[in-house]
Specification:
5 helices; 5-stranded mixed sheet; alpha+beta; 5 strands
């Protein structure tokens, strides 16, 4: 079973969303495995923690990406993204319906994510 999935985005600020699928997973261990193409522009990545932390203000965290393509651990910020980003993140979770259905989320939140 996959523990996290990277979804590329076409956005001026964010290069993509990483969906965490396992609430027991060490975030640092999982994200350390990711490497992104080196670039000179400032880039950020959104981490969706819905299945780890719940649907709350701590659901989305953003990290900067270094010029070498690694996540900068001391750059984390919790964000409340636009509705478009939330809808995109929910769409990615919908594709993992079995995992969402068996997650620690409340039945209301599961229905909210899994409904079209």
């Amino acid at each position: 079973m996959k523990k996290c999935i990277f979804h590329q985005m076409i956005n001026n600020i964010y290069i993509g969303i990483v969906t965490i699928l396992d609430y027991e997973l060490s975030l640092k261990k999982c994200l350390s495995e990711f490497s992104f193409p080196p670039e000179q522009n400032e880039r950020k990545i959104i981490i969706d923690l819905a299945l780890k932390c719940g649907i709350n203000p701590y659901r989305f965290v953003v990290f900067d990406i270094s010029n070498e393509g690694k996540i900068l651990w001391n750059s984390n910020k919790y964000i409340i993204p636009s509705n478009d980003v939330v809808n995109l993140a929910n769409m990615y979770l919908r594709k993992q319906g079995d995992i969402v259905a068996n997650s620690m989320l409340s039945q209301v939140k599961k229905k909210e994510i899994l409904s079209v």
